[in-house]
Design brief:
This is RNase H type-1 domain-containing protein. One of its GO terms (molecular function) is RNA-DNA hybrid ribonuclease activity. It holds the Pfam family RNase_H. The structure is a single chain. By secondary structure, the chain is mainly α. It contains twelve helices and two strands. The protein folds into two domains: 99 residues, Ribonuclease H-like superfamily/Ribonuclease H (Nucleotidyltransferase, domain 5, 2-Layer Sandwich), CATH 3.30.420; 109 residues, no CATH class. The chain has a two-stranded parallel sheet. It starts with 9 loop residues before the first helix and ends with a helix. Bound molecules: zinc ion.
């Protein structure tokens, strides 16, 4: 804040800066702390009817305050306060850690405030809550996935939970789980007496994907290890690949029907 230019005493300036910077140091993550400090400065200037210039290192906070698209009630309330103080307060962005003495002083006070500042309650923005919830759910999911003893095949392909593989395409689920209209799976449920294919080999998903003579027009070369996760992730969004999986599945279903009639 440029106080000397507007006739504010050094002492007042220092104590104001200290309060604002304490706020910067104690609040929780995100840009809300910067917005809160700017809001405090606007209230301070309005109360004393003095012109101030607020230097902030947070470009996104300044942009949020200026944006007509912001939905956060907290930012909107700050925008209202700034509008009321529009002739008194101007906002300027400064680069952080660029040797700017004011910024260095701010960092100094922020460090002090982090150990002896008072608590300040700032509502968390929706995007922040969403991020925290997502992280929590992914950690829970991954922990469950890691500790579960079932789904060995799926774990080989997908060692950890990946959000973009949440899908309902049944052919991809057949591929991941080794379930579906294949002799090996139907035999487990006694729908078929034998897990083997009509060609005589073991009738699991990989057999139809790679070696069965009845599906040779659609065969694939399956990568192993970590490459398989990457391959699966990429191909499961490929329309041609999904169609190929569908064709293979239709053939294996027909084979199962034939085996049932034998
Ligand atoms: Zn076969």
């Amino acid at each position: 804040m440029e106080c000397d230019r507007y006739g504010v005493s050094d002492r007042t300036a220092t104590s104001f800066a200290s309060v604002v910077l304490q706020d910067i140091g104690i609040v929780h993550e995100g840009e809300a702390s910067h917005v809160a400090a700017i809001n405090f400065a606007a209230g301070w200037a309005l109360e004393r009817n003095v012109k101030i210039k607020v230097f902030s290192v947070s470009k996104s906070s300044i942009e949020a305050i200026r944006s007509p698209k912001v939905k956060s009630n907290f930012v909107l309330s700050v925008t209202d306060n700034l509008y009321n103080a529009k002739d008194l307060v101007s906002l300027v962005w400064v680069k952080t850690h660029a040797g700017n003495p004011g910024n260095e002083l701010a960092d100094h006070f922020a460090k002090i405030a982090s150990s002896c500042g008072s608590d300040m309650s700032i509502p968390a923005p929706y995007s922040y809550v969403k991020k925290v919830c997502k992280e929590f759910l992914m950690n829970e999911w991954n922990s469950y996935w890691k500790n579960s003893t079932t789904g060995k095949r799926t774990k080989e392909i997908l060692p950890s939970a990946i959000l973009d593989l949440l899908m309902s395409n049944k052919y991809v689920i057949y591929l991941f789980t080794n379930h579906g209209p294949i002799p090996a799976y139907l035999c487990r449920f006694k729908i078929l007496n034998n897990p083997d294919c009509l060609c005589g080999e073991h009738g699991d998903v990989d057999h139809y994907l790679t070696s069965c003579m009845y599906t040779k027009d659609y065969h694939l070369v399956l990568p192993t290890g970590a490459a398989r996760t990457h391959w699966t992730r990429k191909l499961c969004k490929n329309y041609l690949f999904l169609n190929r999986l569908k064709s293979i599945s239709e053939i294996s279903r027909k084979i199962c029907d034939d085996l049932q009639r034998l």
